[in-house]
Every structure is written in C-alpha cells, then in structure tokens.
Known about the structure:
Layout: E1 2-6, H1 10-22, E2 26-30, H2 33-42, E3 47-51, H3 59-68, E4 75-80, H4 84-93, E5 97-101, H5 105-119, E6 126-129, E7 132-135, E8 140-143, E9 146-147, H6 152-163, H7 171-178, H8 188-201, E10 206-209, E11 213-216
Parallel strand pairs: 1-2, 1-3, 3-4, 4-5
Antiparallel strand pairs: 6-7, 7-8, 8-9, 10-11
Helix pairs in contact: 2-3, 3-4, 6-8
Amino acid sequence: MRLLVVEDDNTLNRQIVTALEQAGYAVDAAFDGEEGQFLGDTEPYDAVILDLGLPKVDGVSVLSAWRREGRKMPVIILTARDRWSDKVQGFDAGADDYVTKPFHMEELLARVRALLRRATGHATSEISCGPVKLDTRSGRVTVEGNPVKLTSHEYRLLSYLMHHTGRIVSRGELTEHLYDQDFDRDSNTIEVFIGRLRKKLGVDIIQTVRGLGYLLDAGQTKT
C-alpha cells in the first residue's frame, strides 16, 4: 500500500515516514501544500496524511481541490489540539479521520490501518484468504497457522492483493502501489515477487489472469 505524508515540519514528517515504512508501506513525502496537492493529483495513493497548517496552500484547500477533482483516497488530517474548528473544516472538505498534535505514532498507524481496511471492505485487522492470514497490525503472515517469513516487498505485494481479494489487479497497478516515487520501478520484478510468494505460501491462491494481471481467490486454493 502506498501512502503520502504532507507535513511542513521536517522532523515530524521524517518520523511519520519512517514509522510507516517500518510498518510495511511505500511512502512519499511533501513539505508544503502545493507539492502535496500535485502529488495527490498525479499519483495513485491508498491513503494520505495531511497537515492543515501548510505553507503555500493550506491543507483544507488541498483537500477541497482533491475532492472537487474526484480524488477518493482516504485522508487523515493532522490538527492542533485546541483548533476544533479545523477539524470541522477538514471533515466538511472531505477528510475521513483526524489526529490531534501531539500524538502517539501508534495511534496514527492504527488509524491508517483502519482507513485502509474500510476502504477495501475489511472489518478487522486480520485479513484472510483461504488458509492464508495476514495480520495488518503485526505484519504477521501465516498459512494454516504456520508463520511465513516474507521480505518487505513480498509483504507489500501480498498485503495489496489481500486487501483487494476477488478483484483482478494489473501488474501496472501493483507497480504503482508497491513502490514510492523515488524507487526505480520495473514491472517485470512483479512476476519475480509473485513467483516467490507462491513458493513461500505453498498454496495456490494467486491466479494469473492472462493479459490482465493477478487475482487472489480462496476458491482456487490447492495445497
């Protein structure tokens, strides 16, 4: 899953980005509203963390512009604790959730996980497909209860497919959502990661749909 952090405080921005990357996300960062709005307009993010007090263009204006253009990615706004009016403005502009500063990073991570689950129709932190279970809270993957060790990119790929179980996902879409903006993207590596995932999982839940992409389907499970 690919996220965008728009926060003008350099230290806080880096702290959020680091925490999200350690949690298994691909993350891009912007430090003012103008850059953030441009990235949100041109890149396919799964969620955005947006500060409201931004230079150049304020966060409410950025969010309002995204929604006018039909951008539907979930957005968490960051607000000062004593500015309740900012929260109201943010929700009216199209925000999905908010976190007040200062905040505990674990709370922000939990809210990100919840937003991503809701956006893809999942009710709990554990996502299942046949015998495969992925705990988004701990990053743990198991097959029939047995833990499976994955690399960061393998985990990102499986997580994206499991969040979108039952839908064909193209190789191009996977490439766009697995890597951050600065990564040297090569869609051919997706095939390599798919092959590794199939081998490590040991169950046939990832189908190749010729000419279209990949489909995660528990109904096709074979051991």
